[in-house]
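Sharing in case it's useful to others searching the archive later.

Someone asked me privately for the predicted structure of Type I-PGING CRISPR-associated protein Cas7/Csp1, so I'm posting the question and my answer publicly. Question first, with the sequence:
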Amino acid sequence: MEIKNILVSLLAPFENHIANGGEKILGNASSIKRTPDGRVYISGQMQRHALFTAMERLNEADPDKGETYVSNGDGVTNYVEKDLRADMGGFMHPSKNDYSGRRTAPISATMAISISSNPADELSLEESKIARDLLIRLKQDDSSTEGAKKQALATKEFSAYDLMHMNFSLDIGALSISKGFEYGGKSMHLGSTYFLHADAAERKRRARLFLEAAMSLNDYANQARNMVSGEPQQVLIVFDNKVSRKAARFFQANEKERENILAELRERKARVFYGNDKEGDTSVFAAKKQAITFLMENALFNPAGETSNVVPYATFAGEE
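And my answer, the predicted C-alpha cells:
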C-alpha cells in the first residue's frame, strides 16, 4: 500500500484534572476552558505542544535520530532536514513584510473535547463537573520581611472526570517535502516542483515518531506538577490512500455511522487498526504495535519521486 495520510483518533480518560492549567505554558491561571454547553476542552495549541514534547522525548531516545532534534515552539527554525518541529509543525518567518518564509504543517490536530463526564457512559455529552481547589502558600519564618506578609490564598478549577476525544492527522505528501510553484507570463501558475528534504528511511522514522507521540501525550499541566495523562483508552489508527479525516468522527458517531465509515475505508482499501483497553481482544498497545509493523512494511507517498535527490530547505527557499 502507498500511504498518503495517517489519522489517529483516540479517547483518553482525565480524572480530577486541570488539563489546560499552568501559569507558564499555554494555560489559564485559574480556570478550565469550556465549550458553550459546559464541556471541558483543551485547545489545539496545547494539543500540538503536548504532541511535540512527546515527540522530542521519543526522538532523543531513538538511536537512529542522527542530527535531528525538536526545536522549542518559540524558536522554530527552517531546517526541515533536521528540525522535526519545522518539518511537521510548520513555521512562518516573515521576510521583507511578506510571508515568503512559510511552511504549512503536515500535522493537524483537533481540540480535545469531553464527550462524557460519566465513567459509565462513553457518549453522554453532559456538562463537565467542575469544582475548585484551594491553594495556600504557607510562610513559616515570621522573622523575615517576606514572612511578615500575609499568607497567599488562591483557588483553581478542576474537572472531576472527562473522557476526552482528540484527533491527529499527518499528510504524508507534505512530510519532509516542499512544493515550489512555477510562474510565467502574466503571473500565471504553470506548474509545480517538489523538493525532498529527507530520504525514505528518515521519512518513515518521522511518521513512526508521529504515531507513537500521538499515543504518548502527558505534558498538559505544570502548575504544582499536576499529573495528567492523555494516553488512550481506545484508539483508531487509519492508514489511508488519500487525504481524508472523516474517520475522526468515529468515536462520536452512532452505530450506523460507524459501520458506514468503516465500510467506506474498506472499500478503498485503507487499513484500520482499533484498540480498546476495556474490552475486546485487541488492546491499545497491541493496536499500536500492529500499526507500526504495517507502517514499516509499506511505502510512503512521495510526490517528489523516488529518484529525487535530498536537498536542504535553504536550497528550495533560494537562500543558497
